[in-house]
Specification:
Layout lengths: L13 H10 L9 H23 L9 H11 L2 H22 L2 E5 L6 E5 L2 H42 L3
Antiparallel strand pairs: 1-2
Helix pairs in contact: 1-4, 2-3, 2-4, 3-5, 4-5
């Protein structure tokens, strides 16, 4: 966006927001599905160990080692789930800003919101960025969120309907 034609501050322009988000250490994780899965697995293993340690003091689990391990296993999924949700929300926000026909922005503070309609050339450029760069990331995050959700729900069902 040319600064002379565009009233939107540089840091609030969707293309620049995309570039900043892409450079972010955490939000760059989902750029490739394999790297994101490895990072989430590391968090899951770390959380599993932490949950094992925390729940080891429970008298309730002294009677059933399997229940103790399974509960730690499924409850530790909460950490990768929360990380995935946060990544999805950030990338989805950028996707919406890039595909929007209008840009909402603040000139000096929260109380003076303005709206600027994008010119056709900018709409096409940002739509291309959204479809080529951001949409695959969102697709990967949705797949990963689905897998984690199915695992969490299966854990809930196991504990709800089994007596062990």
């Amino acid at each position: 966006m040319k600064q002379s034609n565009c009233p939107v501050p540089k840091e609030q322009q969707p293309t620049n927001e995309f570039i900043e988000l892409s450079k972010s250490k955490i939000f760059s994780w989902p750029k490739t599905k394999k790297s994101l899965i490895l990072i989430l697995l590391r968090f899951w293993v770390g959380a599993f160990v932490l949950f094992l340690i925390i729940s080891s003091g429970s008298v309730y689990f002294k009677t059933s080692l399997l229940k103790y391990i399974l509960l730690s296993f499924f409850s530790s999924l909460s950490i990768p789930l929360l990380i995935s949700i946060r990544l999805y929300l950030g990338w989805n926000h950028i996707f919406k800003r890039l595909t929007s026909e209008k840009v909402e922005y603040e000139e000096s503070g929260w109380y003076d919101g303005q709206v600027w309609e994008k010119p056709l050339v900018l709409k096409e450029k940002e739509s291309l960025i959204a479809s080529i760069e951001v949409k695959p990331i969102l697709k990967n995050l949705i797949q990963i969120l689905s897998i984690i959700s199915v695992l969490v729900l299966s854990g809930i069902l196991i504990f709800q309907y089994n007596n062990f």
